[in-house]
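## tool: complex_structure
## caller: assistant
## args:
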Amino acid sequence: MTEVSLAGRPSRLPEPGPLPNRLQLTDDGQLRHMLTIEGLKRELLTEILDTAESFANMNEKAVKKVPLLRGKTIVNLFFEASTRTRTTFELAAKRLSADVLNINVDTSSAVKGESLLDTLRNLEAMNVDMFVVRHQESGAAHFIARHVAPGISVLNAGDGRHAHPTQALLDMFTIRRHKGDFTKLKVAIVGDILHSRVARSQIHALNILQTGEVRVVAPCSLLPADVDQLGVQVYDNLDEGLRDVDVIIMLRLQRERMEHAHLPSEHEFYRLFGLTSRRLQLAHPTCLVMHPGPANRGVEIESAVADGPHSVILEQVTYGISVRMAVMSMVMGVHQT
Amino acid sequence: MSVLIENARIIDPADGFDAVAPLCVQGSEILARGQIPDGFEPRRRIDGSGLWLIPGLIELAARLREPGEEHKATIASETLAAAHGGITSVVIPPDTDPPIDSPAEIELIARRTRQACGVRVHTLGALTHQLEGQQLAEMAALMQAGALGVSNAHRPLASLLVLRRALEYATTFGLTTVLAAQDASLTGSGCMHEGAVCTRLGLSGIPEAAETAALGAILALVEETGARVHVARLSTRRGAEMIAKARAEGLPVSADVAAHQLFLTEMDLAEYDPNCHVIPPLRGQRDRDGLRAAVARGEIGAICSDHQPHEADAKLGPFAGTRPGISGLETLLPLTLRLVEDGLLGLHEALARVTTGPADILGLDQGRLSAGAAADFVLYDPGAMLEIRRGDWLSAGHNSPFFDWTFSGAVRETWVAGRPAWSRPAEDTE
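## result:
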């Protein structure tokens, strides 16, 4: 009586479900857009990281530029403020010899669907090759990818709470450089999981790379519903969550997204979930401390930890350029030789 | 005009009549069913061989977008879409612009309806002044002007005290109050079912408790006031169970469900499909199955289309910013009959959920085929294949997740008050 009926569905369509790859991969499995980490294959993530590795070596040399994307036009289309992400995307594009246009759309005026599409159409008319998009609405990058002219690639630079794939990739790159094999690692993601697109993308990436254990640590009011179904162990106590971990990823408390009563005070949050030197001692002695930035010192992380010997926070920024170069060249179908 | 329809299989869920028999129509009413009275001289004879003759469907919640949002749709366009879908009566919720909170709006709608294809258009009046949730609307005047009941649509009430007073006042006139079980603060800015899929998509969730908490409050007030309440658009299994329990205890409550809730779940949002953006949201598979079971058992007495046509731009944007709603008039009957194919319930029960079920909820005397009833009926070809195609679609709103679905069986003709409101174009009927 309660059996699932699929009889009425058109037979030529695949099974319904949130499968994100119909849009972002070509028929032969190559990256067309980079919208989300979810559903990507391990081999593809490894290929991106390997490609980023070759760019990272180049970025340490005196001449930092390659002609891979010469003649291509890349538009950074940012509907939400950003410094780090936008500048590293810009630098990545310039080091690939592309022409870059930065557009910051005023977010104070309500951005409606039509105007988003209109903005897109106008830019398309200028024969651009790639959009790097940040938007406050989850699914915005998917929307743009669905409506963009064929041949134009879309890179998601953060959409609402949904995804920030290049951030997750640069985090994986940083972890891999320091730790090598993911399968033996315990990784704890700490803080405002609920509002974090970074955490969602990191969880997918860590699981695809077969990380030994992925933990999320937060008060229950900052955990999204059924988060355990993403393949994580849930901890509501920081001391327990940090025990023996090899990597700690602290998240920014997104106060601007908190519409309702999520926390009594920042003070109490820091007391219970802030990463301090004392707590860091619970983790593995060679533990990495990461943060996607910008960090709220004294809210989620103590300055001594953010600037301490375990911290790789600034390396993350540096590697962001190489990882974005890798993704940009791959979606354009060109390869570093 | 007098009409004789012969050789069709007449199916009347109101009294279980099911036979190949004649139906005699005199003027706007059914003169006789099952026999031809002596001296009946029809002006027109229709051969219904191979066809079913069923009561016209009654749709409990159709936004026709008039007055106020004629850029989305009009009474003329949507009543024709209704007839195309085998629907002969629609009920408009009061959230038009301006809201239906005075006889003037009801008269305007009646006037527009007279210029349309003939499908009956009924109204629900506002429960509170301008649907603002503060002060009671003039329910007695609305009832005298023709409103079948009162409702605040999806707009919140200021407090449970307002709801209590509104229920008490409506009871004075024997008016049914139609309520959405949806707590505004728990719904917040949510746009989909809260759960694992929502977490993956990074959208704001609407928890199950948004429905059950509101339903708990409604049922407590029904118990206290004895008011007759119809709960519109259930979306959760738990909500359906609460309604079943309340009915078993004898409370005067009924409920309906939107047809799409019986077929789609949160999984259908896939890559942010805005055509699956509905309020209340598509929920989990357990909810879908629970709602189906409640429909089969009759605890949910009506299936509706929750018709909400939109212009294309309303669905063009990132998911949360798109307008919720499905244009559903033309898929209500196919989806309802698909439940029969799925073995969920019998043909008579399924038809009852879209005919006598909604009629009984709002006290309409349509939805049946006995002698003396209104001649509102559908000639249905059970052997035809129906593919939902944009080219055949009559609603001005093309926001449907059901395009490209195929169904067996299709409406051939829809009659209202003894006149054809829609017939399938001749080239399609061979």
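## assistant note: Residues 313 and 322 of chain B are 9 Å apart (CA to CA). The interface with chain A takes residues 188-189, 194-203, 205, 207, 263, 267-272, 285, 289, 292-293, 296, 313, 316-322, 338, 341-344, 402, 404-407 of chain B (CB under 8 Å). Handing back to user.
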